[in-house]
């Protein structure tokens, strides 16, 4: 892929997220050509430190998004605590206060479904470790829109439920180890 | 979902929003599409409509459908003292400025069911400013406004509200302001003494007075950029030099065409002060 690469990467993770993301995001080169959106279940009533942690660890810039944040290639966008992350178009994010979905705000399903509308076949959706059902419907939406769907091998995952449910909803998903997910993204990093 | 279907649905949504505007003068046409699309699908699925066009047909001919649509299209998620650090910052950094004025006007724009309003009224009472303050609580949804005016909340929510109030630096007990029964809490009528409840739209209505503080939290996230600029323009015109604007925790004036008319006052709490420009 070149710097004119189109599309986006969206990642959902819950229990065990920090460790899994630490094996994926810091490995990406500064030239990674796609925006990366990350939805992690974080407690709603206190500030999240995820963006700060990964901004320090990664060659890519990592930020926690604010409403109407412009979307740029090679930036890692974290959904903020207590808001859903949605996509207006390929250049603009929006936040929402709507009800929790599967007890989650941010909800992986909500963000994935919205991203699927906007990027369609140009989207890479990845479900990592987690102890709940969130993300399965969202990944299915990406798959239906023609996007690439990847799930962390449940055997590798700190918590199996989220990847297992995602695979049940999207049997065609590529089931990969963390190392292979990392390698897959690197192969897309031109 | 195929491209063709997606496109049809977007047409249907646009037509439905036009219908709501022409029939009832509720203007959602410049709302953030991602969220409107999601909520209209919820109406469709929850009420058993086959298509969004079918909803349009119903709402045009049946006024009783309107409040149902409004319930979905205007998001009513709020808490008393939501984001306690915001209210603590108002108390510690904005209130000392407000004390210097003999009379005060505060506008809670998009007050929904009243939680933010009552948070500010209680805070102002605790700080001895309530008597000299007129609060304007506005929203477009008449059902939400009626609930705000009633000031009745579910008892089970009070535990969270009480904890928020404490974290916001509350000087009294929240239980001083309500009585409970039948799993409901009724807020003390005296909290409404200085409140004017009014129907007002940030989309279509104009400025109605000069304010010392505008609090508009998590309302503009549902607007597109153009509509956000209009709303911030209204706040700009309502606020004289050195007056204050408070937004939601993840809202920002960074992307607004009126950014130059404000300076950061408490940056991390999204409290802005009007400059002279």
TrEMBL record, chain A:
Q: Which molecular function term from Gene Ontology is one that the record holds?
A: phosphorelay response regulator activity
List the CDD domains hit by this protein, alphabetically. CheB
**What positions does the domain CheB-type methylesterase occupy?**
2-190
Q: Which domain of life is it from?
A: Bacteria
Active site (record annotation)? 14, 41, 134
- Supply the alphabetized keyword list: Chemotaxis, Hydrolase
Q: EC annotation?
A: 3.1.1.61
Cellular-component GO terms for this entry: cytoplasm
- Entries under Pfam families matching the protein: CheB_methylest
Q: Which GO annotations describe the biological process of this protein?
A: chemotaxis
Give the catalysed reaction(s), semicolon-separated: [protein]-L-glutamate 5-O-methyl ester + H2O = L-glutamyl-[protein] + methanol + H(+)
Indicate what this protein is called per its UniProt record: protein-glutamate methylesterase
């Amino acid at each position: 892929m070149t710097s004119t690469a189109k599309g986006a990467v969206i990642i959902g993770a819950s229990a065990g997220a920090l460790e899994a993301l630490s094996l994926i995001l810091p490995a990406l080169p500064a030239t990674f050509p796609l925006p990366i959106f990350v939805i992690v279940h974080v407690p709603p009533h206190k500030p999240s430190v995820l963006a700060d942690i990964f901004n320090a660890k990664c060659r890519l810039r990592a930020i926690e998004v604010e409403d109407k944040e412009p979307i740029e290639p090679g930036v890692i966008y974290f959904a903020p605590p207590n808001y859903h992350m949605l996509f207006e178009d390929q250049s603009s994010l929006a936040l929402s206060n709507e009800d929790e979905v599967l007890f989650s705000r941010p909800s992986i399903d909500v963000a994935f479904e919205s991203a699927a509308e906007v990027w369609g076949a140009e989207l890479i959706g990845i479900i990592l470790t987690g102890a709940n059902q969130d993300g399965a419907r969202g990944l299915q939406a990406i798959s239906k829109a023609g996007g690439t769907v990847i799930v962390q091998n449940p055997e590798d995952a700190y918590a199996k439920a989220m990847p297992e449910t995602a695979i049940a909803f999207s049997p065609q998903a590529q089931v990969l180890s963390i190392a292979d997910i990392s390698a897959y993204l690197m192969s897309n990093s031109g | 979902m195929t491209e063709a279907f997606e496109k049809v649905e977007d047409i249907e949504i646009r037509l439905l929003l036009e219908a709501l505007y022409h029939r009832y003068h509720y203007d959602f046409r410049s709302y953030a599409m991602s969220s409107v699309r999601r909520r209209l699908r919820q109406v469709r699925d929850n009420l058993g409509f086959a298509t969004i066009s079918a909803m349009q047909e119903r709402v045009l001919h049946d006024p009783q459908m309107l409040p149902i649509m409004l319930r979905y299209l205007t998001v009513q998620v709020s808490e008393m003292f939501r984001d306690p650090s915001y209210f603590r910052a108002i108390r510690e950094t904005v209130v000392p400025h407000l004390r210097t004025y003999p009379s005060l006007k505060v506008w809670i724009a998009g007050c929904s069911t009243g939680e933010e309003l009552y948070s500010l009224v209680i805070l102002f009472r605790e700080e001895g400013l309530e008597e000299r303050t007129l609060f304007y609580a506005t929203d477009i949804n008449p059902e939400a406004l009626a609930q705000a005016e009633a000031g009745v909340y579910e008892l089970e929510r009070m535990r969270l509200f009480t904890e928020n109030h404490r974290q916001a630096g509350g000087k009294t007990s929240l239980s001083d302001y309500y009585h409970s029964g039948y799993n409901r809490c009724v807020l003390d009528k005296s909290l409404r003494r200085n409140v004017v409840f009014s129907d007002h739209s940030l989309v279509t209505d104009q400025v109605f007075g000069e304010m010392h503080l505008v609090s508009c939290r998590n309302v503009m996230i549902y607007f597109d950029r153009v509509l956000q600029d209009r709303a911030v323009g209204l706040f700009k015109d309502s606020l004289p030099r050195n007056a204050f604007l408070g937004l939601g925790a993840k809202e920002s004036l960074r992307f607004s065409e009126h950014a130059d008319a404000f300076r950061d006052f408490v940056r991390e709490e999204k409290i802005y002060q009007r400059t002279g420009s």
